[in-house]
Amino acid sequence: MTTKPERVVLIGVAGDSGCGKSTFLRRLIDLFGEEFMTVICLDDYHSLDRKQRKETGITALDPRANNFDLMYEQIKALKEGQTINKPIYNHETGLIDPPEIVKPNHIVVVEGLHPLYDERVRSLLDFSVYFDISDEVKIAWKIQRDMAERGHRYEDVLAAINSRKPDFQKYIEPQREFADVVLQVLPTNLIKDDTDRKVLRVRMLQREGKEGFEPAYLFDEGSTINWTPCGRKLTCSYPGMQLYYGSDVYYGRYVSVLEVDGQFDNLEEVIYIETHLSNTSTKYQGELTQLLLQHREYPGSNNGTGFFQVLTGLKMRAAYERLTAKEAKLAVQV
Ligand SMILES: Nc1ncnc2c1ncn2[C@@H]1O[C@H](COP(=O)(O)OP(=O)(O)OP(=O)(O)O)[C@@H](O)[C@H]1O
Ligand SMILES: O=C(CO)[C@H](O)[C@H](O)COP(=O)(O)O
């Protein structure tokens, strides 16, 4: 950590395992810097270890396998600037290790399965994102990772995903109602019956009416826009690229929706898209493109997943700047 923070800004990153949270966290570190930001993985609040879960048949997604009282107390303490003694869940052994000391930092990110599940924890968050990956894409990503990197068999990966599904639907998915941004990753509409899942349709749902959060928009705020970018300015090989902007109602609340379907052939040309967006919370024209270019090797950099992850990160930075400026202002007033 750099200096002692005046105001700890708390960010929630929610989603199932294998949905791109770690990639997003790397993008946040690029924006905020490692020293400035501390990540708390909520797996550390598992109250049942792997053996106990196996014996009881309770999954890690089930709230009964997690200690929300301790999670709340400790996250609240961090937000209040206090140091905590956080438990550690060891994914190698499946056991709960002795706790570690965590100090407050300017930005504290709580990431994992349940950052928005418990009403008390949720109320502490200053900004949140939920990664909503459709089953088709989730399977493709998980199979790719677990087979290539972890030596798992195709049938085992599929069985693992299916066995998580009931509790996922009961306890994890409903949290998307509470997120400020939901990133939906869906199969493309540009290729009929696509099974490759290389080309993706990605939607960024931005909550309307949150104080200080100004959703990004395409061309004209409040309009509905379908945009096929000019092929001379944005090179896209088959099946091309399609963008959309409009508003929708999500869990009974208004959201602004941005959508990118397709992939970028040439990342430098993303600037063309960026210049047609407003409220991006960039510091200079081209910053979004620059951030993407900085790590073209991150998964999804050539499509809407990377693009919207960067945009969400920029919105989090704006929230941080707004909240700390407000806090500083209040401090001056008293
Ligand atoms: N945008 C993307 N495009 C393509 N593949 C992706 C993308 N994001 C993630 N993946 C794939 O999914 C895998 C999991 O991503 P990541 O590690 O970021 O997820 P996670 O939510 O942190 O998972 P876990 O909680 O299990 O660690 C990556 O190794 C990669 O193979
Ligand atoms: O969904 C998960 C979050 O990452 C894990 O499955 C959960 O934390 C249990 O971990 P493990 O399988 O290593 O016992």
UniProtKB/TrEMBL annotation:
<keyword id="KW-0418">Kinase</keyword>
<comment type="similarity">
    <text>Belongs to the phosphoribulokinase family.</text>
</comment>
<keyword id="KW-0113">Calvin cycle</keyword>
<dbReference type="GO" id="GO:0008974">
    <property type="term" value="F:phosphoribulokinase activity"/>
</dbReference>
<keyword id="KW-0808">Transferase</keyword>
<keyword id="KW-0547">Nucleotide-binding</keyword>
<dbReference type="Pfam" id="PF00485">
    <property type="entry name" value="PRK"/>
</dbReference>
<dbReference type="InterPro" id="IPR027417">
    <property type="entry name" value="P-loop_NTPase"/>
</dbReference>
<dbReference type="GO" id="GO:0005524">
    <property type="term" value="F:ATP binding"/>
</dbReference>
<protein>
    <recommendedName>
        <fullName>phosphoribulokinase</fullName>
        <ecNumber>2.7.1.19</ecNumber>
    </recommendedName>
</protein>
<dbReference type="GO" id="GO:0019253">
    <property type="term" value="P:reductive pentose-phosphate cycle"/>
</dbReference>
<comment type="pathway">
    <text>Carbohydrate biosynthesis; Calvin cycle.</text>
</comment>
<keyword id="KW-0602">Photosynthesis</keyword>
<keyword id="KW-0067">ATP-binding</keyword>
<dbReference type="InterPro" id="IPR006082">
    <property type="entry name" value="PRK"/>
</dbReference>
<feature type="domain" description="Phosphoribulokinase/uridine kinase">
    <location>
        <begin position="10"/>
        <end position="191"/>
    </location>
</feature>
<dbReference type="InterPro" id="IPR006083">
    <property type="entry name" value="PRK/URK"/>
</dbReference>
